[in-house]
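REQUEST FORM: STRUCTURE PREDICTION
Request ID: SP-0412
Submitted by: Lab K.M.
Chain count: 1
Length (residues): 168
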Amino acid sequence: MYENYPSTEAGGQLPETPAVQQAPTSVQTAVRLMYAGAGISAISFILGLVTIGSVRHTLEKQNPTYSASKISALVNAEVAIVAVAGVIGVGLWLWMAWANKRGKNWARITGTVFFGLYTLDLVLVAARSASGISTVFAIVTWLVGLGATIMLWRRESSGYFHAQEQVL
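STATUS: Completed
RESULT:
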């Protein structure tokens, strides 16, 4: 005969379950900022799809020698790029919010790398003289990412992430 689990009646000790620590205010703020980043990215994505019609006009104006089929192919490629980038962008914001809220240190590092990549993207947006509204969205998104990154690396956040590593 065997016992599946030590009982307290037989003098056995129940294993302690690790206490789940609540995220500090700085992590909660970072997560809220990430949700805001997802919302801003979603709005930017929708605006990108709504204004896709202007791409055809711009391409025709810049390339008068292109055939209608070539212009259509370029417009379709632009639609695909906007759709894929929009879905991925929103998904990454939500994924990072979920993982950071749970104290995953890899997510804090990954989110910081994403912020660095987005910083490079912002420089490219500014360099190619994008439309005013897309530049505004890019700057606001960057500022949200900056705020989230700063919050994730505060002392109390670091303590939370290190404590969560110990639980696992």
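NOTES: DSSP finds six helices and no strands in the chain.
Reviewed by: T.R.
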